[in-house]
Write a structure and sequence with these properties.
Elements (H helix, E strand, L loop, with lengths): L2 H14 L1 H5 L12 H21 L8 E5 L5 H6 L5 E6 L2 H10 L6 E5 L13 E6 L8 H14 E15 L5 H6 L10 E5 L4 E3 L4 E10 L17 E9 L4 E3 L4 E3 L9 E9 L5 E11 L3 E2 L8 E7 L5 H7 L22 H10 L2 E9 L6 E10 L2
Parallel strand pairs: 1-2, 1-4, 2-3, 4-5, 7-15
Antiparallel strand pairs: 5-17, 6-8, 8-12, 9-10, 9-11, 9-13, 13-14, 13-15, 16-17
Length: 383
């Protein structure tokens, strides 16, 4: 999504569930974070960052720090224990408003709203430390690349930049696998999907196993057995939509189709799905995907849509005080969601070097989840 759309989604997160949007622990959804506990995670994280800097023998800056993608200030507040002045910057006004509300350090800590694809609000060389974690992964690479360039511009010579970003999905990690498989023929993306029920009634946060029958309605052979260990494997997958057809959650479950399917042939495929965390009316959409190539639905193949009622079983306490409500679109039709993006590690090195910087260290990082290979980079600006 572009920056304007990104801002709308994160503004909405700031209204609905700001702390969970920043640290998305399943147990903390629906405003279950305690404020003190939440900010303590920031203190622990920054302490670990500073310890890692010391362990690598890097001179630790102390003057002016920037927290990029600060949200409500979880890390900015923690940085105030190590720097003379700290700044937080974020695209969402709702987050910045909360950050200012939660600020415990007065004029020493300042927060800035920035809805541009640059950091022109800051002067060149104005920070000796820049930190960003669990932020760039939610921004389209065309923008995150530019922000990294801007980090190098506003970092003073000899300063330290630390940022995290995924490199690539784990399924892409093997060049041998990438070469071993290719796209199905254009006319092969035609399927019929069916299950043995026309509607589903369930509860929030349930794991269900469905059995679908997938028929190859194309004139081409689906060589799924050959592609079983390749990056372009054929899989049955599902999305969750609201009752109006708007996306609530993409890519919930996926199951490999392990056998060849000839034209006109069918295969039975189990699919494990996870129901939405909030009660309401939803649509379960089933589709086929050839990994890293295309969704069948985007190629004109019909998807299967099943109405689902997610009903909460309430205790008396819940009925009186905490009754869950289904996720609903705001006045602009937005149900906020997070995108996931990466930049290949080699590109990060090239980008930094092209802007008078040097990567002095990197560590593997799993903040983007188990499906991604990611890194935390330690960068300095050359004098």
């Amino acid at each position: 999504m572009d920056l304007k759309e990104l801002q709308k989604h994160w503004n909405e997160f700031g209204k609905r569930d700001p702390l969970w949007a920043i640290l998305s622990s399943p147990q903390k959804r629906n405003r279950r974070w305690e404020l003190a506990e939440f900010f303590k995670t920031g203190e622990d994280e920054i302490a670990q960052v500073m310890a890692s800097v010391d362990q690598q023998g890097i001179a630790r800056p102390t003057k002016r720090a920037l927290d990029f993608g600060c949200g409500v200030g979880r890390l900015t507040q923690a940085l105030c224990g190590y720097f003379d002045q700290c700044c937080g910057v974020d695209i969402a006004e709702t987050m910045i408003d909360l950050a200012r509300k939660y600020n415990r350090h007065g004029a020493k800590c300042q927060y800035f709203l920035n809805d541009r694809d640059d950091l022109a609000i800051f002067e060149t060389g104005s920070f000796d430390f820049i930190y960003s974690n669990i932020v760039l992964q939610h921004i389209s690479p065309e923008y995150s690349r530019n922000y990294i360039k801007e980090f190098m511009r506003i970092l003073e010579p000899g300063g330290l930049l630390i940022f995290q970003i995924p490199s690539h999905p784990k399924v892409m990690a093997s060049a041998t696998d990438v070469a071993a498989a290719s796209s199905l023929p254009a006319d092969a993306f035609l399927a019929q999907i069916s299950i043995d029920r026309s509607t589903i009634v369930t509860q929030p946060n349930q794991t269900l196993v469905l059995t679908a029958v997938v028929k190859n309605n194309s004139p081409e052979h689906w060589p799924s057995q050959r592609m079983a260990q390749a990056v372009h494997a054929l899989k049955l997958a599902n999305h969750w939509l609201d009752r109006h057809g708007n996306v609530v959650s993409l890519d919930d479950g996926r199951t490999l189709i392990e056998q060849d399917v000839p034209p006109g042939g069918s295969v039975s495929v189990p699919l494990t799905i996870n129901t939405p965390p909030q009660a309401g009316s939803y649509i379960l959409e089933l589709d086929l995907v050839q990994e890293l190539i295309a969704w069948f639905g985007n190629k004109g193949s019909p998807t299967l849509r099943i109405p689902v009622q997610v009903r909460e079983q309430f205790s008396i306490y819940d009925r009186l005080f905490r009754r869950a409500r289904p996720a609903q679109a705001n006045d602009e039709g937005i149900i906020p969601h997070m995108e996931m993006h990466g930049i290949p590690q080699a590109d990060i090195y090239s980008l930094v070097e092209a802007h008078n910087g040097r990567v002095i260290g990197s560590r593997e990082n799993s903040a983007a989840g188990d499906d991604w290979v990611g890194f935390c980079y330690y960068v300095t600006k050359l004098c």
